[in-house]
Amino acid sequence: MNKILTDFEAVIFSVFFCIISLVFLLISNECNKNLEEKKKLCTRETLAKVVNVRSGRVISSDMNSNVWYFTYRYDANGETVEQESKIGISTKCFSEGESVKLYYNPKQIRQIYVPGDKTSSLGKIFKLLGIMFACVGILGIILCALIFTHVI
């Protein structure tokens, strides 16, 4: 009886990893679609100045780190705009006072895309996590199948 429960738990564990893998791959796909949409809409190039760098703390059970938010000042459609990045990133890639190239949406001047801010790596990170979880899940399913058929 205990062996069947252990086999059942192994199958559930493997399926769980496959489901988590799908979730990560869907998030990756959504990140990439949002980035491509932003690139398509933000067509006007301008030079912006980083006027503020703010850090926020990310605290979880196994991690304690900073994320960085950058406020950019730029001219768009004859107006001076200050816009803080919406997504915090783990790398402090800009310093206050630094000039950076960004693109803005001419119809919504607060919508920006900053090529150098490394937010494009989010989709890649989620994709990598999805692939890793899929490998563990599929390997688990294969091992369970081999165990159930008494091959190993």
Mean pLDDT: 85
Give Rg in angstroms. Answer: 22 Å
Kindly report how far apart the N and C termini lie: 19 Å
Gross morphology is elongated
Question: How does this structure look, described?
Answer:
- This protein is an alpha+beta fold and 152 residues long.
- It is 45% helix and 28% strand.
- It contains two helices and five strands.
- A five-stranded antiparallel β-sheet has the order 3-2-1-4-5.
- Strand 1 and strand 2 form a beta hairpin.
- The radius of gyration is 22 Å and the shape is elongated.
- The protein starts with a helix and ends with a helix.
- The model has no long low-confidence stretch (mean pLDDT 85).
Topology:
Elements: H1 2-41, E1 44-59, E2 64-76, E3 79-84, E4 99-104, E5 112-113, H2 121-148
Antiparallel strand pairs: 1-2, 1-4, 2-3, 4-5
Helix pairs in contact: 1-2
List keywords for this structure.
single chain; 152 residues; alpha+beta; 28% strand
How would you sum up this structure in a few lines?
This protein is an alpha+beta fold and 152 residues long. The chain contains 2 helices and 5 strands; from the N terminus they run αβββββα.
